Amino acid sequence: MASLLNEPDRLTELSEGGWDTLLRLARRANVMGRLAFATRGLPEKALPAPCRPHVTAALALADRQAHAVQWEIGCLRAALDEIGVPLVLLKGAAYLAADLPFARGRFFSDVDILVPRTRIDEVESVLLKHGWAGTHHDAYDQRYYRQWMHELPPMRHLRRGTVVDVHHRILPLTARFDPDPATMLERAMPVADDEGVFVLSPTDMLLHSATHLFHEGELPNGFRDLLDLDGLFRHFGAARPDFAAELDARAHTLHLEAPLAFARHQCIRLLKTPGIAPSRNGHVNRLSDALYDHALRPQHPLLDSPGSGFARWLLYVRAHWLRMPPHLLAWHLTHKAVGRFRGQPAENDV
Fold first, then answer.
1. Distance (Å, rounded) from C-alpha 294 to C-alpha 318?
2. What's the half-sphere exposure (Cβ side, CA atoms, 13 Å) at 73?
3. Which residues of 105-129 are buried (b: 16+ CB within 10 A; e: fewer)?
4. Long-range contacts of 125-134 (CB under 8 A, 24+ apart)
5. Which domain of life is it from (predicted)?
6. Strand, helix or coil at 89?
7. What class has domain 2-345?
8. CB 175 within 8 A of CB 324
9. 133, containing H or E segment
10. So where are the chain's domains?
11. Quick one: pLDDT band at residue 346, thresholds 50, 70, 90?
12. How far apart are alpha carbons 150 and 177 in whole angstroms?
């Protein structure tokens, strides 16, 4: 599917049955918007008539979401302006604000921002004032986020229903890697024609995306996030001749060599991303490749095998192993297992 998104002319080779399969997988992988945008330059006859309503609907939804995110960015900027904290966007909202090519048609579930940890209480207070309310009200979850994690519990706007994730680090306080968020904030770059809005520098943007995927335990959007990495490598690699060297140096400074090696390896292996030198980092191995074969593809019965669920569960445990020391991990997973057995709401699954 990735090759079809990056080379839209190949879509003309698909049969009607091929289109049916592609639409099913794209919808499950949450990349229908990207697929719809990829079809815009094709002749009308290249798209089978039964597929056109799906593509039209995806284009409309992607356009609506892009406008909604831009509106949300403006609201967040106005709120943070009151306390003099710059709005630094992360992930999907940052890709949209920076007008990166692969962000066209990308679907969103929330807006992620990065703020100084020393200002986190002020940020939470001003967002509460402007209509965002906290979630995850269980006492254990509140302690989990505030003592161990890299972000506040997600905040949902009472009127619009939109969600903002307020990060003060890019990894939990208990994680094995410890990149300094202050240096990332210092190097943040202003968004053109959007005063007061910033995104991470190109190297930091890619490293954050790689780190997020490397540490993610639940991967319903794993394929979409891998496509983001592919897009970042392609875009900045073409725009900046020394980008690979800059990336290596920055990864060393932030102690993120392992996530970068993972990102390079999986992009080469699964997407054949051009212009990336193969990594020799020891964090890449055949076992992880076998597990990620199940997690970094659309999670659909057409692609799943009997071992897919178990592979994803192992990656879930691995992610928590990277996030926290063994005694906290054992306590946390036990607490969550007991909560699921008792039928606690899904929002408690952190």
1. 15
2. 25
3. bbbbebbbbbbeeeebebbbebbee
4. 126/79, 126/80, 126/82, 126/83, 127/76, 127/79, 127/155, 127/164, 127/166, 128/155, 129/79, 130/75, 130/78, 130/79, 131/157, 131/158, 131/159, 131/160, 132/156, 132/157, 132/158, 132/164, 133/157, 133/158
5. Bacteria
6. strand
7. alpha beta
8. yes
9. strand 132-134
10. 2-345
11. very low
12. 12
Contact 128, 116 (CB under 8 A): no
Q: What is the pTM of this model?
A: 0.89
**Distance separating the N- and C-terminal Cα atoms of the chain:** 30
Give the 3-state secondary structure of 300-340.
CCCCCCCCHHHHHHHHHHHHHHHHCCHHHHHHHHHHHHHHH
Q: What is the DSSP letter of 201?
A: -
Summarised one tens digit per residue, pLDDT across range 240-293 is: 889 999 999 999 999 999 999 999 999 999 999 998 877 665 556 788 899 999
Rounded to whole angstroms, the Cα distance separating 70 from 97 reads 8
With CA atoms as reference, report the closest residue to 8 among 33, 38, 31: 38
Asked whether the beta carbons of 132 and 157 are under 8 A apart, the reply is yes
Tally the residues of the chain.
350
Which residue, 72, 88, 87, is CA-closest to 200? 88
Whose tokens are 């409309």? That residue is 60
